[in-house]
Amino acid sequence: MTGAAGPAGAAGEELLIVGAGGFARETAQAVRDAAAAALAAGRPPRWRLAGHLDDDPALHGLDIDGVPVLGPGALVHECPAARVVVCVGSPRDYAVRARLVRRLALPESRYATVVHPTAALSGTSVLGPGTVLLAHSVLTAAVRVGSHVAVMPHVVLTHDDTVGDFATLASGVRLGGGVRVGRGAYVGAGAMVREYTTVGAWSLTGMGSTVLADVPAGEVWAGSPARRLREAGGPALDELRADALETGRRPETRMGSTTG
Q1: Are 58 and 10 a contacting pair, CB within 8 Å?
Q2: Positive or negative torsion for Cα 215, 150, 208, 117
Q3: According to a count of CB atoms within 10 Å of the terminal CB, is the N or C end of the chain lower?
Q4: Annotated catalytic residue, options 52, 116, 148, 159
Q5: pLDDT, tens digit, for every residue of 30-43?
Q6: Do residues 246 and 183 make contact, with C-beta atoms less than 8 angstroms apart?
């Protein structure tokens, strides 16, 4: 499989983006921006963007922002040399990324980690495979981010923060030092989280919220200060129960592993 979505003269490892919605388009742009920055600096690009994969047949064959939609997600198995990043999810169903990664059943080594060239990633911080770090995000010191995490533009993660696998940090989120964001949690745009606070697994924090106390797993909190509104939606609770069965522990204590 070949693609021509990158800058002229770009080389690098072939990359497939699973998804063709907003997050996937932003990731595609981050890949192109990183390739352009590498070429301007006289370095070969890390990735060569081959295209999107999406299970909506109405998108197959289309170009989205100049990037082709090549077919369904299952095509990853026909392109064993290509690296993959899964870019799906929304506040309406923020568990979908975990379900899709589980369905694809790829080895961890197949997953790429995408970092926009304007992101500030400290040398003491680590990102897991499949994670995307978008424009102008900042990781200051000893931040640990798990696998398949979406870090949207202008997010700030400060010293000793830990973010679990499949979490989503929407644009403009600010975490104080020592915050723990649980597996699969969704933190809405512009939310601020007090230092040494825990945001529980598969919870949802509303946009613009000010989180001053721990958010329990599987709950929706919002406001300033944030308060409980209700239980999370069914897909998130299904993932929470599955995690509990798998680990035999309270699901809010399970945090994602990270790799350098």
Answers
A1: no
A2: positive
A3: C
A4: 159
A5: 999 999 999 999 99
A6: no
Q: Please say whether the beta carbons of 240 and 201 come within 8 A.
A: yes
Task: Tell me the per-residue pLDDT of 159-218, one tens digit each, with 9 for 90 and over.
Answer: 999 999 999 999 999 999 999 999 999 999 999 999 999 999 999 999 999 999 999 999
Classify residue 201 as exposed, middle or buried by CB count within 10 Å of its CB (0-12, 13-18, 19+). Answer: buried
- Residue 159 known to be catalytic: yes
What is the rounded CA–CA span in Å between residue 125 and residue 41?
Answer: 24
Q: Write down the pTM of the prediction.
A: 0.91
Residue entry with tokens 């920055």: 37
Identify which of 79, 59, 73, 95 has the alpha carbon closest to the alpha carbon of residue 15.
Answer: 79
102 Cβ contact list (under 8 Å, min separation 6) = none
The Cα 220–Cα 226 span in angstroms is: 10
Cis peptide before 225 (omega within 30 of 0): yes
Contact 204, 91 (CB under 8 A): yes
DSSP state of 214: P
